[in-house]
Every structure is written in C-alpha cells, then in structure tokens.
C-alpha cells in the first residue's frame, strides 16, 4: 500500500485496535507453519499486528539475507519483551542485548573462550566424546527395553556446555540438573507465553505462566551464582580454563582505569553464561532427537555406504574423530543426516531506526519474524522439501558436505549469527555417530513410530517418543571379550 509521503508499506493482515491481528490468527498450527501458509494469501513478506506491535514476517531467503546480512547492522537489535527482560536481567548477556559495545564485548569473550577448547589435539572433540560415551552407556543399560532417550540426550548436551562454562558436569539425579531441565522447557515456550499475554501488556492481563517463568529464572540464577562463587574461589589468572574464568579475568582487566571497556558486573557474567545454556542445550539436544526420530522412519539411511564402512562397525572408542581422510565419508554422511532437521527457528531482528526491505518501508522498532522453516522448505528452492533426504547435503561423490543452495542458513547470518555453530555441529555429528555405531535403533514392539508433527517453541520441539536400542554385533562381541 502507498502511505502518505510516498512511502510504500507491506500488505498487512486485518487488525483491530489494541488486539491487532491476534483475533484473526490461528494458534493451532505452530507459528512457523502458520506463517508459511499465510504466504499464499499475503505474499512472501507481509505485515501483521501482534497486539499493538507492528510486525513483519519474512518467508523468503532473499529478503531474509537483506535483513540479516546486507543490512545486518541496521537490523541488529533484538526485541525487548517482558519475558526476555526476565531472562536476561533487562537486556544483559548476548542473545537479548542491544547491538552495541556491550553485546560485542561479551560475544567476543565467548568466541575467544572456544579457543580454550582447541588446546592440544582437539580437546573439544574429546570432551564431546566423553559425554557421548556416558550417553551410550546409559542407553545400553536399558538395552532391549522401551525407553525415551530425551533425558539422557539432554544431560549429555548440558554437560558439554557445563564443561565449557565451568569445567564440571552433572549426574542425572543432581538437583541442579533438574533445575536446568525445568528452566529450559519453560524458556522454550516463552514467546507463546508472551503472545497469550497480549503483546507487551501482561500487567493488564496477569498470567500464571509468567509467574512460573520468573520462579524458574530465579532458581537458574541462584544455581549460576553458586557456580560463580565456587569459580571465584578457585580463580587463578594464570590458568584460564573455561568461560567463567575468561569472564572473571575480563572483569579484573576492566578494573584497570586505563582500559575503557563496557561494564562487567557479576550480573552481566551470570546472564552471559545463562545465555550459553539457554541457546546451547535445548537446540542441540532437540536436533539429536529429531535425527533419531527421522532415522526410525528411514532405517535405510542410518550408516554411510562408503569405503570405510568398517570404521562404523569397529569397537574403537573414538572412531569418528575428524581430521583423518579415511573418515571423511563417514563425517560427511553423519553431518548430512544432522543437517536435515536443523531447520526451524524464528529470528526476530528489529531496526532501531526506520529502514527498508526492498522497496518497502519498515518503521523503527518493527519486529521482523524471519521464518527459517519456511526458507528451508521453500518449494521454489528445494526438491521435495518435506522429505528427509540427507543426500541433498552431499556432493556428487557423496563424500563432501555441501550447502545445497542459498536458501539454507540454520545458524542465522550476519553480525548475530550463532556463536555456537562449530560446537553444535561437532556435538550433533559425534553424538549421532556414537549412537549409530553402537546401536541398531528400533521402534517399540507396538510398532509406533515417533510423531513428526512437532510442537511450537523457540526450537521446534519433537513430541516425546519411545524406542528400543540393541547393541550391534561388533560391539556386543567387544563387550563380551572385554
Ligand atoms: C544465536 C541457531 C546451538 C549460542 C543463534 C541464531 C540461530 C541459532 C539461528 C541467530 C539468532 C539471531 O540472529 O537472533 C542454533 C542452532 C543450534 C545452536 C540451530 C544447534 C543445533 C548453539 C550453541 C550455542 C549457541 C551450542 C552455545 C554454545 C548462541 C548465542 C546466540 C545464538 C549466544 C546469540 C548471538 C547474538 O545474539 O549475537 N543460534 N544455535 N547456539 N546462538 Fe545458536
């Protein structure tokens, strides 16, 4: 539509004062599916009102890349909502903080802490393999019985992050682990808590879920504070081993009046570590579960049919390690399997001043919902987008992982691209490779396959499912002879 002053605005869904488009919206479908359906009616990029908040949906990769990459800095802010303020102590940390020096500094500190894991021969890999080993032992303990792998996978994923942040890990029955599980499941649904609280007016519409979220965040913060106090006591500036150490060192350095840095307080430190847990556990553990679910539906996909097949059957504790040429094929196949289900995420950039997408005006403060699911299932870019086809991520020789087209960026793009991509990819591949090497995965005796419908969340949740694992022949024999 042509506005006054010659500005052009996007087609907008119908809307009412205060309630905006909410009365016209369907909350039965997951948001990303619903927004994808709406493109038939309103086009790839369209507007709607989330209560009193003008918002835009982007369903196509070219507009998404314009927002995230080409004009990434102009759209680099992220929404401040009641819920994100609760999570981030009013915009501290990384994921919910405004684009600026503070965000940049904490992001850099996290990035440089990853290099602590590069020490010697692939320390990160060893750390992940250690957790994969515990995971496989736990799955093996219930061998032949029906089990839901969710808690074991969540524990393994949490412990990779725990090691990165504090150089320690949890057991399944630790109280702290339970607090983190409860926290994550709540945080994952928080955008929909927000929607039900009618945009930014939860004070007018008191909401029990919001109180629950506050309680859960308080417990998480107490847990992190406890970790921080322990780390402070152990802290030695000459031996920086994990993210908390690196943040404490930066805090000491910032006390130097000659160094002009943004503020580093205990609360900033806690929120940064909280972000790494929030962004790094539910994401990876959910994708591992999606992979398993897809593999139960497509048992023929499991292991690569390549020259080093023997590797995948040998009972060697670290066989899928990277770096060796002869495991290239295994690595490519495993990574291709993981690439398929990493597809959903709503990224929500915000321009701090008025901007444009193509010829359209985007007023300052507009929430832009970049619909990665729609972009990753666009029938104009993907052949049979709904099908689980890991081979689409392999080159012609099937031994190199490729990005098949421009409509694929599961970790985002531009200045706020995921900081944990390398860790996530290593973890997904190694967890899955360990599981597939050791076990045949089977559906329970009643033949019930996992549902692939999914549930709305920040991460597209998989509905809990059950499976049976059976130790593969080579591993059973190795266990008997051990
Ligand atoms: C940001 C996806 C794992 C830490 C993001 C973004 C995406 C994403 C799409 C961009 C959001 C935006 O532009 O606002 C994923 C997926 C993962 C994963 C699909 C796993 C399968 C991880 C892990 C970590 C992590 C393991 C930490 C170790 C972060 C952080 C941000 C982020 C801190 C915020 C970056 C910023 O605002 O500057 N992630 N992520 N993620 N991710 Fe990940």
From TrEMBL:
Cofactors required: heme
Binding site for heme: 418
GO MF annotation list: heme binding; iron ion binding; lyase activity; steroid 17-alpha-monooxygenase activity
GO CC field: endoplasmic reticulum membrane
InterPro entries: Cyt_P450 (IPR001128), Cyt_P450_CS (IPR017972), Cyt_P450_E_grp-I (IPR002401), Cyt_P450_sf (IPR036396)
Pathway: Steroid hormone biosynthesis; Steroid biosynthesis; glucocorticoid biosynthesis; Hormone biosynthesis
Gene3D superfamilies assigned: Cytochrome P450 (1.10.630.10)
Superkingdom to which the source organism belongs: Eukaryota
Subcellular localization(s) per the UniProt record: Endoplasmic reticulum membrane; Microsome membrane
Any one Gene Ontology BP term: hormone biosynthetic process
Reactions it catalyzes: pregnenolone + reduced [NADPH--hemoprotein reductase] + O2 = 17alpha-hydroxypregnenolone + oxidized [NADPH--hemoprotein reductase] + H2O + H(+); progesterone + reduced [NADPH--hemoprotein reductase] + O2 = 17alpha-hydroxyprogesterone + oxidized [NADPH--hemoprotein reductase] + H2O + H(+); 17alpha-hydroxypregnenolone + reduced [NADPH--hemoprotein reductase] + O2 = 3beta-hydroxyandrost-5-en-17-one + acetate + oxidized [NADPH--hemoprotein reductase] + H2O + 2 H(+); a C21-steroid + reduced [NADPH--hemoprotein reductase] + O2 = a 17alpha-hydroxy-C21-steroid + oxidized [NADPH--hemoprotein reductase] + H2O + H(+)
Family from the record: Belongs to the cytochrome P450 family.
Protein name per the record: Steroid 17-alpha-hydroxylase/17,20 lyase
Organism: Monodelphis domestica (Gray short-tailed opossum)
């Amino acid at each position: 539509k042509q506005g006054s002053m010659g500005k052009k605005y996007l087609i907008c869904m119908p809307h009412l004062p205060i309630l905006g488009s909410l009365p016209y919206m369907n909350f039965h479908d997951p948001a990303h599916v619903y927004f994808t359906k709406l493109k038939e009616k309103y086009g790839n990029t369209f507007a709607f009102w989330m209560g009193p908040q003008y918002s835009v949906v982007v369903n196509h990769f070219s507009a998404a890349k314009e927002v995230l990459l080409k004009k990434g800095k102009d759209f680099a802010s992220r929404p401040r909502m009641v819920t994100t303020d609760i999570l981030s102590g009013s915009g501290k940390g990384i994921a919910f903080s405004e684009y600026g020096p503070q965000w940049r500094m904490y992001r850099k500190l996290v990035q440089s802490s990853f290099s602590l894991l590069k020490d010697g021969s692939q320390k990160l890999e060893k750390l992940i393999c250690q957790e994969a080993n515990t995971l496989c032992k736990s799955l093996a303990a219930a061998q032949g019985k029906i089990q839901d792998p969710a808690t074991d996978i969540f524990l393994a994923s949490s412990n990779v992050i725990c090691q990165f942040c504090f150089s320690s890990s949890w057991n399944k029955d630790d109280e702290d682990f339970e607090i983190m599980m409860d926290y994550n499941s709540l945080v994952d649904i928080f955008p929909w808590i927000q929607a039900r609280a009618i945009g930014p007016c939860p004070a007018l519409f008191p909401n029990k879920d919001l109180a629950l979220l506050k309680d859960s965040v308080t417990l998480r913060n107490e847990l992190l504070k406890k970790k921080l106090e322990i780390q402070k006591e152990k802290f030695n500036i000459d031996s920086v081993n994990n993210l908390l150490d690196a943040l404490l060192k930066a805090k000491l350095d910032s006390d130097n009046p000659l160094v002009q840095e943004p503020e580093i307080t205990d609360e900033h430190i806690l929120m940064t570590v909280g972000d790494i847990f929030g962004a790094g556990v539910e994401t990876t553990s959910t994708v591992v579960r999606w992979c398993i679910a897809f593999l139960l539906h497509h048992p023929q996909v499991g292991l690569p049919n390549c020259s080093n097949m023997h590797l995948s059957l040998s009972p060697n504790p670290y066989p899928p390690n990277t770096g060796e040429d002869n495991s290239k094929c295994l690595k490519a196949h495993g990574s291709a399997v993981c690439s398929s289900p990493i597809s959903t995420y709503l990224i929500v950039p915000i321009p701090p001043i008025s901007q444009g997408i193509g010829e359209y005006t985007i007023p300052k403060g507009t929430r832009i919902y970049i619909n990665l699911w729609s972009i990753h299932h666009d029938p104009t870019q993907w052949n049979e987008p709904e099908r689980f086809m890991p081979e689409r991520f392999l080159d012609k020789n099937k031994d190199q992982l490729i990005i098949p087209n421009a409509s694929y960026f599961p970790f985002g793009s531009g200045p706020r691209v995921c900081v944990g991509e390398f860790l996530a990819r290593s973890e997904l591949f190694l967890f899955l490779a360990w599981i597939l090497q050791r076990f045949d995965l089977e559906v329970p005796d009643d033949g019930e396959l996992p549902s692939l419908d999914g549930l709305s969340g920040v991460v597209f949740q998989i509905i809990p499912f059950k499976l049976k694992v059976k130790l593969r022949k080579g591993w059973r024999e190795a266990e008997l002879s051990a």
